[in-house]
């Protein structure tokens, strides 16, 4: 009982320490182009497969991907690269034509 | 306890540093009355409050009549309370919780569901099979969780008035006030009474008890989106009185005499519960919750010449921490439970008081690939002063093989101490002698009940003739390693003993639902139960359980007009196959006949704030032939009010109105 509480205390302690250096829970909202539920699954899967990404939620209405990443392990650029590799354009990284063409018919969003 | 407080204090200090960056977007789609998920790993059906408006639904026990997952038994002739069953097992084998705090347990097992008024309910989640380890080790065949109305979301005023031809009247009033931007409060008041004596089957006994209930709850909700703190505080008082027995029974003169047979059951209950929760601002997937509940339940009763008093003081505490490992594909919940129950129980004057307490820790890990597969692995270790030290493993898995289909599997263990008297109170209304045939165990001489439950389910949603439809098939098996067997197969006796041999419950459910034409919904289910126990006198099906059942529900709604005017029609039909009957010394046959029970309701909404409804229960007026066995001589050897396989009361009409101030 005591040990568990001690553990939790330590845990809380660590999280707050870390914020002084690199942010372990950095929040980013980036624009990712896509259409449908299938796109949502693909985008989120691609993002979360990058080591260091803790949470990724893409919204169909505004095309915004909400990310929480551990900046000690990765940066947003590598997440954007992974998403582009899956065929989806992000604000800074565009997918190659081949990767875009591999998308399912209904997922082939209008490219900007 | 002190440590936990310390933890929270430290915690409060830390949160001061955080900044306001959290923005949440909520998307609320139009939701159905019954929701079945394709993504959840557990086999969970959600009933919304709209579903509860489809039937008379005076209280929680009656709110499952329009859905096939839960079977509602007929109220016994004596207490008028309805018992529920899931996978063929009665409510002691279910974990029934109110906002995730176990509520119907111990002393309240028999009547507890009738202590939550239907209008207080926001939604009900029904999980088939073992269920999560977070709320405890006691659930065996399923979990039912009720969410009550939330002060933050509630309308300022709600009034419901109800009356029926079995002379039952009800009033429900809800008042809600937003105190400031952070605090909201609701006052929920329920009153019901049955004033007139009914004896439709002319056996000289009341078909329904006379009674009244006052139930008052005040809840406070705190929610601060800027800091991530949420809290609930609930206080509740309930007083319930029932009188039943022979029509001419007058409790003042005839109590505990052989002038007339009669019974009174009076219950007072006081509940206080609190919840405190915190969501990390920069980590919305991480949260901590702390729940506490204190309950005093006091029942004083007599049944003919038998007295039964039980008082339970109960304390429940649960600390739960949710977070992730690496990313949100891997989630976990871990925490501690503490439960203490002090029973002062007097059975026919014999003092059987006891104290139980348990402490346990749980860990539940969830993997979800966000696509087509998820698995929940749960385990808990508990120490209980009567059950000893034990572990409870549970597993749930889900796989989507193709579009709109889900395959589920679950397995788990449950362990509990059977409160044989509190759970079988309906048997007091008989001349059966009570015998406990074992004496080496720690709970009334009996050993703890242990069972494994396994099951799988398949659900496919599809379009049929252009209309939304779904079909599903579930199979579950419960295997008892030990059971507190309740044996009603000996003449004029009820015997309790440890299981020797086998006891199992198999249940199969096939369901098909569709929209026939726009606004006309059709639900249907066939259920097969094979519930067999090795009794001392041989192997029998569990009494009062139909092997085959068929359910259908039709609902039609007209299009809602500009001001909210609408008609709603609802019709439910239940067909019951033969049921094994207990030994009644040949007063009743070995098996019941098959029969049909139908209910129907019409609702007229005049505007978004006012509606009226009119309904009928037991439309076909089917009544059990001899509801009370041996009614001619209630103090004789064959007297038994508990062998109820069909409605006692015939056709019953009811009407009510609902008024809201938005």
Automatic annotation (TrEMBL), chain A:
Q: Which GO molecular function terms does the record list?
A: metal ion binding
Q: Where is the HMA domain?
A: 25-91
In the record, which residues are listed under signal peptide? 1-18
Keyword check for Signal = yes
Is this entry keyworded Translocase? no
Going by the UniProt record, its keywords in alphabetical order are: Signal
Protein name from the UniProt record: Metal transporter
TrEMBL record, chain B:
A GO term (biological process) for this protein? Answer: siderophore transmembrane transport
Keyword hit for Transmembrane: yes
**Main localization, broad class:** membrane
Ordered alphabetically, the record's keywords are: Cell outer membrane, Membrane, Receptor, Signal, TonB box, Transmembrane, Transmembrane beta strand, Transport
Superkingdom, natural source? Bacteria
Where the record annotates domain TonB-dependent receptor-like beta-barrel, the positions are 218-619
| One cellular component (GO) term of this entry | cell outer membrane
Which SUPFAM superfamilies does the record cross-reference, listed alphabetically? Porins
Keyword Endoplasmic reticulum tagged: no
Q: Where is the TonB-dependent receptor plug domain?
A: 42-142
Report the GO molecular function annotations.
Answer: siderophore uptake transmembrane transporter activity
* Subcellular localization: Cell outer membrane
Kindly give the Gene3D superfamilies that the UniProt entry links to this protein: TonB-dependent receptor, beta-barrel domain (2.40.170.20), TonB-dependent receptor, plug domain (2.170.130.10)
Membrane topology classification: Multi-pass membrane protein
* Protein family per UniProt: Belongs to the TonB-dependent receptor family.
Quote the PANTHER family the UniProt record gives: HEMOGLOBIN AND HEMOGLOBIN-HAPTOGLOBIN-BINDING PROTEIN 1-RELATED, TONB-DEPENDENT OUTER MEMBRANE RECEPTOR
Q: What is this protein called?
A: TonB-dependent receptor
